[in-house]
Structure formats: structure tokens, C-alpha cells
């Protein structure tokens, strides 16, 4: 279950027709949140995963002029219509989908800070015009219908985002979950476990794993990269059945015992012995 503040931020973004910018440490659930919204309400989902070489234009459409030229030369009937050579990106697909349905599609623009500084600024023209953009090669102007897509943008704060871009977004920072929220995350994660025959952790193991994780994060603080929610779920899965039987909850709860499977939680040349030195 998302935090009430996150739900409020989403509702405000939908009400105002603005993108919601989510930040937080890697693995805190930023990307999962957008997918969960689409799943929960049965909405079309268009994830756009940004690369370092990504351009804003790719999210709208691409046009294959070379293929059309080739088809013109061989007198293909397809060449008579320029629309046959344009392909919509994730944003373009969402705007088209919004014309055909009464519910808004969900668009994820994931890790926008990976791209160069011009990327978010190039999106401004689309955001300012509520999703309208022209296709010069075909003479079309693509506009969303009555409903606006729900646009969720994530950032890992690898580089600052332009002020002009930030002014057009609502903002929410996802804090690391507390014990109660982690229990909800585990419950949701294993909701379909019975149907997939995936072993489900017992309540004592879940409680012990959560407490051990939170203790580790508190002790590490900013000394090294702390385990994320994603790494915690992988760790819990190993605790449940890696050795064909569930790891004893009482043993896991005893912080005098060696930490099982530290390779899952720590990613910076950190063995359990190193972790012990950090703690001391």
C-alpha cells in the first residue's frame, strides 16, 4: 500500500494534468508504483526506459524516410501514404490511446536523469500543450482526447534537472518504507505466490527479516550503499527456499549470528566481515 502522501501527490497530478516527478534512492519502488497504478485500475501502460543517448523525439514518433524512398523507387502502393512510415513512441502511443478510451493511460518516463540536459527541456513543448505534437512528415497534429495520460517521471538524482522542467511537474520523494509498509510490500509481492507455486515466507520470518534489514540500514547510514526494497525482496526469497527449507526466524533475528546471503544485500566489495567492521 503506497504512503498517503504519495497517493495525494498522484491525485493532485491527475487533477492538475501535470506530470508527477518521483525521486528516491534506487530500488525504493519508483518504477513499480507506475506499473501498480496501471494494474490496479486496469489502465493501458506505456513504460519508456531512458538511455544515456535517448532523445525526447523518440518518445513521440520516428519516421522512416529511407524506407519510403525505397518504396517510391519500386512504385510500391504503400508509398502513397506517408502515415505508413511513422511509428509512435511510448508517449505518442499513449496520446493515441487516450483518444479511444474514457480512462487515462499511464506513461512512465523512467530515470530521466540518465539523458543529457536537453532531454527534459525538449519535453516542455509537449507538456505545455497538454500532449499535443505535430508530425511534420505527414501533416498530422496528434492530440489526446478528453482524458489526459497520467505521466509519471522517475529520477535517481544523478544530475540536476532544469528549473523550467521542474516548474511543470509535481514532486514527491519516496522515503524508504517503515516496518508496516514493508509488510504490505511483502504481502503484495507474494499475493500470487500460491498460483505460481512460489514458496511463501512465514510471518515470523518476514518480521525477523524486516527488523534485521532496518537495523542494517540504520547502522550503515551513509557509509555505503544501503540495501534497497528490491534487494530485500530478493533476500527474502532466498531465505524462504534457497536451501529447500525456510531459514530459522529466531536465528535471523539474532544479530550475533552471521548474516545469511550478504551477497544479495551488499554491492560494494562488502563481505559480512567488512560489514562487521562498519558496524563497530
Distance between the termini: 35 Å
Q: Helix coverage percent of residues?
A: 40-55%
Name of the CATH architecture of the largest domain: 3-Layer(aba) Sandwich
Widest β-sheet, arrangement of strands: 2-5-8-1-9
User: What is the class of the largest domain in the CATH system?
Assistant: Alpha Beta
Class from secondary-structure proportions: alpha/beta
Instruction: List the secondary-structure elements in sequence, H or E.
Output: HEHEHEHEHEHEEEHEHHHHHHH
Total domains: 2
The average pLDDT is 84
Looking at the structure, what is the overall shape? elongated
Strand segment tally: 9
Share of β-strand residues? 5-15%
Low-pLDDT residue spans: 276-280
Largest sheet: 5 strands, parallel
The CATH topology of the largest domain corresponds to Rossmann fold
Quaternary structure classification: single chain
The fourth-level CATH homologous superfamily of the largest domain is P-loop containing nucleotide triphosphate hydrolases
The Cα radius of gyration reads: 23 Å
Please, how many helices?
A: 14
Amino acid at each position: 500500500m503506497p504512503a498517503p502522501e504519495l497517493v495525494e501527490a498522484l491525485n493532485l497530478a491527475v487533477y492538475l494534468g501535470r506530470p508527477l516527478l518521483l525521486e528516491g534512492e534506487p530500488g525504493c519502488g519508483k518504477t513499480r508504483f507506475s506499473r501498480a497504478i496501471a494494474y490496479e485500475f486496469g489502465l493501458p501502460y506505456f513504460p519508456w526506459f531512458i538511455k544515456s543517448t535517448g532523445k525526447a523525439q523518440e518518445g513521440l514518433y520516428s519516421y522512416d524516410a529511407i524506407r519510403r524512398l525505397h518504396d517510391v523507387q519500386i512504385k510500391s502502393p504503400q508509398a502513397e501514404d506517408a502515415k505508413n512510415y511513422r511509428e509512435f513512441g511510448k508517449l505518442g502511443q499513449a496520446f493515441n490511446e487516450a483518444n479511444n478510451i474514457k480512462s487515462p493511460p499511464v506513461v512512465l518516463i523512467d530515470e530521466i536523469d540518465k539523458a543529457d540536459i536537453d532531454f527534459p527541456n525538449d519535453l516542455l513543448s509537449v507538456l505545455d500543450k497538454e500532449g499535443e505534437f505535430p508530425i511534420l512528415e505527414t501533416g498530422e497534429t496528434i492530440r489526446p482526447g478528453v482524458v489526459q495520460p497520467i505521466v509519471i517521471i522517475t529520477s535517481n538524482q544523478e544530475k540536476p534537472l532544469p528549473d523550467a522542467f521542474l516548474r511543470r511537474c509535481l514532486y514527491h520523494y519516496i522515503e524508504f518504507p517503515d516496518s508496516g509498509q514493508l509488510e504490505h510490500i511483502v504481502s503484495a509481492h507474494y499475493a500470487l505466490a500460491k498460483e505460481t507455486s512460489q514458496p511463501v515466507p512465514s510471518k515470523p520470518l518476514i518480521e525477523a527479516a524486516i527488523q534485521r534489514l532496518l537495523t542494517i540500514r540504520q547502522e550503515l547510514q551513509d557509509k555505503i550503499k544501503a540495501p534497497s526494497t528490491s534487494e530485500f525482496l530478493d533476500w527474502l526469497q532466498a531465505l524462504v527456499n534457497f536451501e529447500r527449507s525456510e531459514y530459522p526466524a529466531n536465528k535471523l533475528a539474532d544479530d550475533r549470528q552471521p548474516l545469511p546471503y550478504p551477497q544479495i544485500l551488499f554491492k560494494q566489495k562488502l563481505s559480512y566481515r567488512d560489514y562487521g567492521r562498519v558496524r563497530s
